[in-house]
Amino acid sequence: MEGVLFDLDGVITDTAKFHFSAWRVLAREKIGVELPADFEADLKGVSRLESLQRIIHFAGKTGVYSEAQIQAFATEKNTNYLKLINSLTKADILPGIKALLDELQQHGVKLAVASASNNAPIILDKLGLTAYFDTLVDPQQIKNGKPAPDIFLAAAQQLGIAPEHCVGLEDSIAGMTAINAAHAVSVLIGDPAEFPEADWVVPTTESLSYDLLQTVYDAR
Length: 220
Ligand code: B16
Ligand code: MG
Fold this sequence. Notes:
By secondary structure, the protein is of the alpha/beta class. Helices cover 44% and strands 10% of the residues. It has nine helices and six strands; from the N terminus they run βαααααβαβαβαββα. α1 (16-31) crosses α4. Residues 7-10, 16, 19, 43-48, 51, 78, 115-119, 172 line the site of 1,6-di-O-phosphono-beta-D-glucopyranose. The active site is at residues 7, 9.
């Protein structure tokens, strides 16, 4: 294992709840639909515009809005989301992640962020974690979002490591598919029933360690 490719939302910090709460307000106020709680999983790891398209589709309003309206909705959601994440601090790093980053660094493993979020640099800064990462992929430069492998391939390439020698950490189905398609080793956080194609699943970030990742990597 030469590199670890981190998803951000749901792996390093729990911003998924802020994304969903901002989408819920936008959906209610602008699209006239109430998003059910289980819709949250459908939006994890999915880009801002693709998330909005899924919500519009769910509302049965595909084709109703102009390109300008869609852009305005996306901007409004992001403005609301930025307000929600403004209060993030080091205390919002998910349990075990800081220790994992320290361990990986001590073992000379290279670290990348492969997040679909354009807000990743702000979030890492607020969490005080920016310096741990050798590289961050700019999602604007990625043609196909998760579940396509592109962002994980770019992360490995930016580290100068073959994806086969990397472990990818994710909390979403789209992310799992993307890591597997990139031929990296996939370690998922959540319910094993949700991620049948993962190389390994842990219940929470607390279970992550250098030893665990190296063991899963060796077993593949
Ligand atoms: P933004 P990840 C993803 O981050 C989120 O899971 C997803 O819900 C969000 O829509 C996407 O980032 C884009 O985020 O609106 O901040 O650019 O899980 O890939 O770290
Ligand atoms: Mg995620």
